[in-house]
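Hi everyone, sorry if this is the wrong subforum. Our group has a chain we'd like a structural model of before ordering constructs, and none of us has done structure prediction before. Sequence below.
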Amino acid sequence: MTSNIIKVAAFDTDGRSGWGPSQGETFTRLLISNSALSPDEKERLVEETTSILGNCVNPAGEADCNTGLVIGYVQSGKTLSFTSLAALARDNAYRLIILLAGTTNNLVEQSYDRIKKDLDIDGTREWKLLSTQQSGFQGAELDRVNMELSKWRRGSPRSRSLLIITMKQHQHLENLANLLSRIDFSDTPTLIIDDEGDQAGINTKAKQSEESTTYARIMALRILFPHHSYILYTATPQAPLLISRIDTLSPDFGKVLTPGAQYVGGKDFFVDGADRYVELIPSSEVPDRFDPPTQPPATLLAALRDFIVGVAIGLLEEEDRKGRNRSMMIHPAVPKDEHLMFARWVRQTKEQWSSILHDTKHPGHDTLIALFNGATQELLKTYATSFSFDDIRPLLFEALDSTAIVELNTREKNRIPSVDWRGEYSWILVGGIGLDRGFTVEGLTVSYMPRSTGVGNADNIQQRARFFGYKRSYLGLCRIYLTAENIDAFTDYVTHEESVRSSIRRHLEQGKSLKDWRRTYFLDQALKPTRSSVVILEMYQSKGKGGWITPDHPYEDSEIVAENREIVETILNDFLFAEYAEAGWNDKQVIPAFSDTITLANLLPYLSRVRYKWPDDNLQHSSILLMLARLVSEEPDISCSFYAFSGPWSGVPAMRSLNDDQPAKIKNLFQGSNAKTNYPGARALISQEAVTFQLHRYDLQTSDKKRTLKDVPVLAVHIPAPLIQRVWVER
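Answer:
Right subforum, don't worry. Here is the predicted structure as C-alpha cells:
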C-alpha cells in the first residue's frame, strides 16, 4: 500500500475553525496497518477524520472549547473513526486525549484492547496509555502526566501524547477529575471522545433545572481544560440533538460517517431482506416471567440449528484457521433469571444433541439429522457455497461440541465477563445489558431476541441491533429471530434513521452549524425518539391519523397571504384542471375544478413555498411535507386528487366568517351536503387511496363584521389512513 493513496494535504474545513489538520506519521501508520479497508475506504476515512478534527479547536490557537457530534451506524466502524481521530490529533500536537469508553467494564476493556491495537501502542513510544480501570490509579499517574507535559513544553522530540481511558461512570469520572485537577492544563490542547455519547452523560434532570450525577462529573472534567473539543460518537443521535441548545453537550458541529461497502444494516435486513433473514418468534413462545416455561421454545431450537450449520460451514471454509469467529446472540429481557433459563436450555440442548449426533444408533438420530438438513437447505437458499449437506453433516458434532456458551451479565463479582474471542471459534452469548449498545459481537450470524420493545425509546431499540455490521461476505448465514413487535419497530426505525441522517447531512454540506439544524424527522407511532427526561426542545408530534388537516389561522399577515395567493395561482396555471360535477348538482353547489393526474413529486415544490405566520400552522405544514416526501421516495410516480373550490369558475359567493375565538378560526370551511341535489358536501370529496387536496379561497369577515379580508387561500389536505405517517418537528 503506497502512502499516496491515503495521504492528503492540510484539509480545507468549512471555515468556522480556521485551520486545517495535516496527516502525519501516526495516522498514516494506522491506515497502512489496516488491511481490512479498501483504498477507497481508506481515502474516505482520511477525509472524514480530517473533517472532524478540522472542526475541533485549533491546537495552536487561542484557548477555546466546542462540542461535536459524529453519527455512524450501529456496528459500522465508529471505533476505528475515533481511534483515527486520536491518531490525527497526535499528528497535530494535541497533547491529551481522554476516551469515555462506555458504562460497563466489558465495553471499557473492549475499547482499551482495540485502541492499543489500532494505535500500535505496544510497538511505538508515541503514547502514554492510562486507564482508570487499572488498580491504584492515583499518585503515580499524576507524576507520569506531569512528566509527559513537561516534555511537550520544552519541545522534546520524544514527547508522547497522553491517552486516558475511563469508564463513563460517576465514580470513575470523579476520581479522574480529582487527579487531574492538580495539574495546570492551560497550555494543553485536549480532545475528549465520548463513545456512545447519547448514553449516561446527557443530563437527565434538565427539566428540573438540576444536573444528573454523571453529567455533573463530565462538566467538572471539562472545566479543567480551557482548550479542548468534546466529541460525542453515537449511532443514535436523538438525545444529543434534543437537549437544550445552550447545554454544553449540545453539538456545535457534526459529521455523518459513511459505512464501507461490506456493511450490512437495517435496510439490508428489514427492507430488502425481511423475507430471507428475519424469522418470527410467536407471542406464545415469549417466556412469561410469572409462569416460566419448562421447555425451550421451538424457535430457539430452530435458531440453534441455523447457527450450528453455519459453524459447520465455517469449519469447512477454514474460517477458524483464519482467526475469525462465528457467534450467536440470545438477548432476552433484562432480568438475570431469564438469562439463566436460556443459558440452561442452550447447555442442555448442546449436551443432548451432541449425544445424539455422536451415537448413530440413538433413536432420535435420524430425526435430528433431518432437522439439521432442513436448516441447511434454508440457509443454502441465501448463502452461496459449493458444499452440500453431505459435506456439512460430518462436521455438525464438532461444530456443536466446540461451541462455548457464556452468560454476559454481572452475576459473578458484579462484572460482565469479557469474551476471549481468540480462545474459541464458536460462541453462544446470552445476556441483556452486556449485549446492548457498544458491545461488538464478533462474527455474529444468528440472533434470538424474545423481548419487548420496552417503553418504546427508538434509540434504545436500535442499539440492540448487534446483528448489524461488516458481514456482507457471510450475510447469507445470518438469521434474526424477533417478536412481531420488534420486527415492526426495527422496520420503522430504518425510515426514521435515514430521515435524520439525510436531513443532517444536507444541512452540514451547506456549511451550516448543527445548532441551526431544525429537528425534524419521521418516527413510528409506537416509538419515542429517546428518553423524555433529557428532551428540552419542544417537539411537535403529528397526530398520525387520517382525515382532513387544515391550518387554523391562514389569514394572518397580509404579506404571507399575498405570497400564498401567488403560489396557488401558479398551481392553477401550471396544471390541467377540468370542472367537476356529479348528477343532480346545480348552481347551489360550489363546482370545483379538479385533477387526479398531478403527481406529488411535481406538486411538492409548489407546496414547499406555502407558509404561515402561526408556528403551529407552519409545524403542521412541515410535517405534511415530510409525509408527502416520504411517499414520493417510496413511489416516485404517485399521484393525488386536487379540487379547487371558490374560484372564478364558481357562481357561489366565496364568503366565510371568523368565529369569536382568540385568535379566530374560519367557520364552516367546507360547504355542507345537500340531500335534494345529491351533493355530499365538500368534506366528502376525497380519494380513499390517494392524498386529496382542496383549495378554498374565501373573503373572510370578522365576527363583528367590521373588517373583511379578501381572497384568502386555504389549503386543506386529506391523507387516507393507509398512507398516514407520523413525524416529529421541532417547535
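For your construct planning: Residues 541-730 form one domain. Residues 688 and 720 are 6 Å apart (CA to CA).
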